[in-house]
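Hi all, long-time lurker, first post. I run a small reading group and we've been trying to get comfortable going from sequence to structure in the token notation. Rather than ask abstract questions, I figured I'd post a concrete chain and ask someone more experienced to write out its structure so we can walk through it together at our next meeting. Sequence below, copied exactly:
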Amino acid sequence: MESKFASAISESGEIKFEGRVKDGIPHLTRVGSFEVDVSLEGSILLCRQVDQPGMIGTAGSILGEEDVNVSFMSVGRIAPRKQAVMAIGVDDQPSKEALKKIGEVSAIEEFVFLKL
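-- Answer (accepted) --
Happy to help. Here is the structure in token form:
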């Protein structure tokens, strides 16, 4: 699968991830050049986006309208108002319609839903 997470891809075409175990739970700590703090449990929506005000609320509102509960949220960014990665943990799988709405948010350049 070809990824558009361009800032996370090395010259060899690989995406580098880093992590650690905290309190017995694996955590993702880096996606390419983005620092994140993501508990690897349940399901995660991982978005590559422009860092701008309102992104957390916009994604949260779309999920809330679909009765999808958010368990955590983490943002890693290169610099203010530049590229960012937002990870949102969810208790339930969002509907195709909710995922489509998230994909239509202009500042979200790419996203992937991961069911762990």
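A couple of things your group might point at:
Residues 8 and 14 are 8 Å apart (CA to CA).
The chain is about 15% helix and 45% strand.
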